[in-house]
Amino acid sequence: MKKLWHSFIKELLLSSRSFYFYLELIMAVIMIFILVFVIPENFSNTEVEYIYLDMNSQAREMFINEYFKSNDEILAEEPFIFELDNEEISAIKYSEADSEIFLFEDEQAMIDLAEKEREFAAVIHLEEGSTEVTYTYYLQGYETQRLKNIYLVLHNGDIEALGEFSDAQEVRSLNQTLVELTDRENMVPAFITFNGSLMGLFIISSYIYLDKKEGVIKAYAVSPSTVANYLLSKIMVLMTTSTVTTLLIVIAVKGFDFHILLMLALLLSSGFAASALGILLASYYQDIAESFAVFFALILYFMLPNFAYFIPSWNPNWVKLIPSYYMQEGFKEVLLSNPDTSFVLYSSLGFVIGGVLIFLFANYRFKKTLSV
Fold it and tell me: What is the mean pLDDT of the chain?
């Protein structure tokens, strides 16, 4: 243990003089800057609608009074000018807390603008002397089939009956004390998964390649120290630096309002597993140029759970076979006020077991190369 400690201190001092040590610090600073100064606290959820009323002036006035100036709620009204291809398009803007509706005077101009801005647009048509209103929607292609079905249902039944049915639905929260993360805080797990674990995968292999180039590893064939001590000291260096930089990122965004012990458990265990994997892969190649394609493909593979994380509707079961899924979800739990402690601890245990198995095989691989 004493030899391991001295080896760790020596490797830490040597690493602090290398380019890759400062690369990790620079990446952490960049992530903090993006999270704090670029990403807003919460993304705007304001719905924007472009509407054209295809009806006579009297019916138009009645429609506006009914839907925008009713006694229940009077929406803020103001003239608004859009620019499209150096032309001005006039509209009347009606605003409320979570939506903005623009009434246009020119149907084609509205359609052209909606296509450019990729916003929802609709034409509400009323024939002269008729009481039946028809709707034409201009969709942009990103709408779900569920939303399209809702539009069909709305105009094939009694809207008031649908509203009463919807209002009658009882919605109960299973956890009354749950505090949701802000949009900025919700981005943190993805950032620290990359910085705390996946970045270490690349950096530790770079350290190994440098030592291979300088003949350090072969020197262990005649050294009283063991290869295992050398590899463990490298892993401990990466675990130390990644833990420090990750905590800086989390504290910069969340303050100290997170579960520090659970965070450390997941950080250290996932960092150990990722570093062990980086060492194992480095045992098969002589320099970073040879292994670049493999590391690039592996990091892309580990980043696949990001899509499931940010697009909840896309969450296939096979994503749960990727270890980074448990890193990301575990880090999210740690940031919550009431985390799923068992999920974090079981995930940490899984990374420890996997990391130990990978490390033992990597140690065997490096011992084998000493005699080559």
Answer: 82
